[in-house]
Amino acid sequence: MARNNPLPPLSIGMILFPNFTQLDLTGPYEVFARMPFTQVHLLAETPQPVRSERGLTILPDATWSTSPALDILFVPGGVGVNAMMEHPPLLDFLHQQSTTASYITAVCTGTLVLGAAGLLRGYRAATHWLSMDLLPLFGAEAVTQRVVVDRNRVTGGGITAGIDFGLSLAALLRDEYTAQEIQLMMEYNPQPPFDSGSPDSADPALVQQVREAREQFQTSRRTIAQRIAQQRNVEAN
After folding, report:
1. Residues 6+ apart with CB under 8 A from 140
2. Phi and psi of 50, rounded to 5°?
3. pLDDT in tens, 133-162
4. Roughly what angle, to the nearest 10 degrees, separates helices 161-173 and 22-32?
5. What is the pairing mode between strands 62-63 and 147-150?
6. Residue 222: which H helix or E strand, with range?
């Protein structure tokens, strides 16, 4: 049954940074933009267009310094995460907004940015399967699920989990009827042609090939995460 009660307005801030993964952002954006009484802000460091890792360019609505107060804070993933994990302007912005936001969220390796900002310690969280082993470095418990909800932290797994994440959050923020209506209008009824969307179901040889192809990049990402964790330990002592 449709909800007749008036809904409170919501402000959602979605972070843009160079070399983000566009589907991490645009999947949830499609859901959020369809939610009633909801304003979605695309936020970047500068007003200039931001290029995704595959070349799609998106124009921000505002900057981190001019952003309004947000009810929901969202970070996508992508190869640009490596730089953002040690980028003070973004980490400071996330800290500032996290003090008043109702939900702090991310999809894919955007979760690592939340971790680097110190916002996942003591929380269960999901991220891309290649980076699951990095979450404990930030004091988080890695959970292999499409969507993980732990109090006011909501995180999604790999890239395509963003739509599942968006619908799950829509149900939390509004209600299940609203989320189901959005899903129907999007005709989100996935029927993948192959059963290779998870390392648990894909051919082991394919999984190994993917790991090897990205080993150098993942090693660099792990080094960054370890450096951040070490710095936090020093500060704590």
Report:
1. 111, 115, 120, 121, 122, 123, 124, 125
2. -115, 130
3. 999 999 999 999 999 999 999 999 999 999
4. 30
5. unpaired
6. helix 215-236
Tally of CA atoms within 13 A in the half-sphere of 95 that contains its CB: 10
Read off the pLDDT band of 6 (50, 70, 90): confident
Here the tokens at position 196 are 């290779």
Looking at the DSSP bridge assignments, the partners of residue 153 are: 104, 150
Residue with tokens 């619908």: 167
- Report d(CA 220, CA 67) in Å as an integer: 31
Alpha-carbon dihedral sign for residues 122, 214, 217, 46 = negative
With a cut of 70, say whether residue 4 has pLDDT above it. Answer: no
Alpha-helical (H) ranges within 12-85 are 22-32, 81-84
Q: For 75-108, write each residue's pLDDT tens digit.
A: 999 999 999 999 999 999 999 999 999 999 999 9
Q: 18 catalytic, yes or no?
A: no
Residue type at position 8: P
> According to the model, what pLDDT value does residue 237 have?
61
- Helices H, strands E: what count in the chain? 8, 11
The one catalytic residue in 35, 50, 73, 108 is 108
CA gyration radius for the chain?
A: 17
Close Cβ partners of 111 (under 8 Å, ≥ 6 residues apart): 75, 77, 120, 125, 126, 127, 135, 140, 155
Single-letter residue type at 224: I
